[in-house]
Amino acid sequence: MNIYDVSARAGVSIATVSRVLNGSPNVSEKTRIRILAVMEELGYKPNIFARGLGLDTMKTVGIMCSDSSDPYLASAIYFLERELRGCGYDAILSCTGASLSRKRQYFELLLSKRVDAMILAGSKFIEMNPEDNAYLTEAAAGLPIMLINCFLDAPGIYSTVCDDHAAMYETAGRLIRSGRKRILYLYSSHSYSGVNKRQGYEDALNAHGLPVRGELIRRCDKDPGQAKELLLSLDDSGVAFDAVMTSDDSLAVGAVKYAHAKGLAVPKQLAVVGYNNSTLSRCTDPEISSVDTKVEALCTAAVRSLMKILGGEENVAKKTTIAAEFVRRQTTDP
Amino acid sequence: MNIYDVSARAGVSIATVSRVLNGSPNVSEKTRIRILAVMEELGYKPNIFARGLGLDTMKTVGIMCSDSSDPYLASAIYFLERELRGCGYDAILSCTGASLSRKRQYFELLLSKRVDAMILAGSKFIEMNPEDNAYLTEAAAGLPIMLINCFLDAPGIYSTVCDDHAAMYETAGRLIRSGRKRILYLYSSHSYSGVNKRQGYEDALNAHGLPVRGELIRRCDKDPGQAKELLLSLDDSGVAFDAVMTSDDSLAVGAVKYAHAKGLAVPKQLAVVGYNNSTLSRCTDPEISSVDTKVEALCTAAVRSLMKILGGEENVAKKTTIAAEFVRRQTTDP
To answer: The whole model's pTM is what?
Structure first.
């Protein structure tokens, strides 16, 4: 007996049942009473997070990501699937792309498969406009939603995040202490994680009395060739910088290629720092110092939390934060 | 009504029902008669590949791969999931690792979820010993099995492969025509695809009257650092080579790093060719010429075949071969 049975018997959508469970005002009184009557008739108790204990489970978790071929997300999916399988759960994968309507559509599709929980991997699932997250907060009345590297403060939604702000704050501080005065920040996304990273960079500049310059904060797609071209064009237009911090290793690879193209000594004339500590950081000469964002630890912690929730435990942490680690290679000073 | 109902009613495993459907001799006459009686009783018709037409479908396909964080397999999973979803099918992902017992166990688990088909991505699912493939040929009586970049000649098993032999044959020919005499071949696996690649290399040497030298055929894990170290140690022990062909871009990155370490001009003193045309091939300076193995086309073709099979079409090609394409960058002669 679960939310889907209630929805079918009452002839309303799952979202509507969720709204009633959530106490949302966006349900007519007539519908609310009908749904409550069906719940009573079916003996339904909204103790749905403990489904894992009972028989009413498909032992299946939906995993959504924007793009499973992104190296960071590919690793996350690998670790999530491994941990879930270790707990006897199947993973249904859904790659949504970036559009909100597609994300909502695929989310509803997975819900209709009676998954026991949803895991949203990557920081692109929470929108700036709260209304755009309503489909998640409503669904979270019916099943737990785990966010990997993203955060939303709502009942039934649990986050496991890397402390991107601290990682960027420390990285920028390290560069500043080694004498860098004009640190270019190259990023690819305005996501939850993207915003924290940039804030860490800006806060470090402020803490060290350096100005935050708009001309040194640049967006670029995750592509080494595009990053290289962007830096060459900044150079052409007279923008000076002695270090490049990036939100992804692919951008740092572009910075090393830019240094090669201009004959700059790395790190003497240009320091470069990657992010995510992927294989890309070990492909260039010199190899790239990068921030290990601990994706395996994140995924393991998220599945551990999920199993507690499905097992009926209360007081599971709403937000688990894991520290990143700076991995020094050859593109930064000792 | 399907093979699972028959298995449950007859009190035998799915594999045993499959064996009866397959006409396998490894079933006792008593069991065979009992299963046939259950089929008759249930009105079961083994037209199971056409399930997609009927109601007896979960609209779900199992995807197995050894490691979803491998860049090639990550791309394959992305394209497979996208194509399946476009056809209204969910993808249950299972990352098996390399052990045969784990592959069998996960395969059976997915079968028990009543998937409509199985897709095995990557060339590591077919074993040398035919007995080790029996679980696949038996299951293929109950549902279609699609192999991506692998091949097994058995009823119900369909392959979509890249022509690795031709790709390597042409790559080696290209290097030989540009004057290379001692081409080192660096590979990571003895899989179906791995065997074809190596054979293409050897056949090209033979066709051009060059000797196949064991000392120039070396195995290495897919890791740039390990590949670099291996080449340095070959150099130390007096093994000479003027080109490096690889079965994966990660190994080619190692060859470029080796050239940097020894101060060799690329491609003048050392030509390097990667395989799979991944982002890694664009991270080094010089950028690496690589073989595009057309993973998107492979996955699209495999799902298109699968939909025909599930739609009840007959005469779907048992093997679809897609040509690779050489992408010249800066590590080979024009």
So the answer is: 0.83
